[in-house]
Design goal:
The chain is mainly α. It has one domain. Helix content is about 85%, strand content about 0%. The protein has 5 helices and no strands. Helix 1 packs antiparallel against helix 2 and helix 1 packs across helix 4. The radius of gyration is 16 Å and the shape is elongated.
Length: about 140
């Protein structure tokens, strides 16, 4: 059941990411628009994915705002490597295709690969259960 929920939440986060990218392109179209859109989309997807993962995948209850901020920072740090995969794939698809929508296909592929890796990173380093630390 966890895998199914994780896939659904990854899909929701991907939709947020791509929607914010799309909106970014509507408002900003300079030469670096792709990079601006990827950054904005990444932030939107990150926040949504953090909330969903924290509450419904890892069932983490924060002690206070400081604890939540620490978890979010660590969660974000674990996403750096996976974001490189996502951005690299999206940029490659954009550069290698004449189709202006190819970047979105690259984003979906990159995010899918990244989310699989990120689950294991988050499970091991971010949302650690106390009983697992003792092992």
């Amino acid at each position: 059941m966890t895998a199914f929920k994780y896939i659904i939440f990854a899909g929701i986060s991907t939709l947020f990411n791509l929607s914010f990218q799309y909106l970014s392109f509507l408002f900003y179209s300079n030469f670096d628009a792709l990079y601006v859109a990827m950054f904005i989309g990444t932030l939107a997807g990150l926040v949504v994915k953090y909330v969903l993962d924290k509450k419904f995948i890892f069932y983490h209850e924060v002690k206070d705002k400081k604890d939540d901020a620490k978890k979010f920072a660590l969660y974000s740090l674990m996403g750096v490597f996976t974001t490189i995969i996502f951005w690299g794939t999206e940029i490659a698809f954009d550069a290698l295709s004449q189709d202006p929508n190819a970047k979105y296909l690259g984003a979906v592929i990159g995010l899918s690969i990244g989310y699989v890796i990120k689950y294991f990173l988050d499970k091991k380093f971010v949302f650690i259960h106390k009983e697992e630390i003792a092992l």
